[in-house]
Amino acid sequence: MSVAAVGCLGLAWWQWNRFESATGSFQNLGYALQWPMFAGFCFYAYYKFVRYEDAPPPTPNQNALTEIPEGLLPERPKPAAPDADPTLREYNAYLAELAKADGRPDTDDRTTT
Known about the structure:
The protein is an all-alpha fold. The chain folds into two domains: 2-54; 82-113, no CATH class. It is built from three helices and no strands.
């Protein structure tokens, strides 16, 4: 953990030096400010892992049934009725007439969308 945190702080120092150089940009400044947060996250993660070793969270009962709470997942959309839209019905009839006029052998009265 210490090596990772020191590495992050070293990268922050390097990015700060790049920002101060003649070819540096504000992107380097952003990275120079971002790397210390990564170092802080290393300490935070280590702290949380140590706490979980001392007092692990309670294990769930493997034999108990679990249910998804109502309203957690979005509702599935209901399928539209096949002939609900009169414009679509007319368009499909028009396409069927065009297909018959072309003399296609595989045409029938199915709707095409």
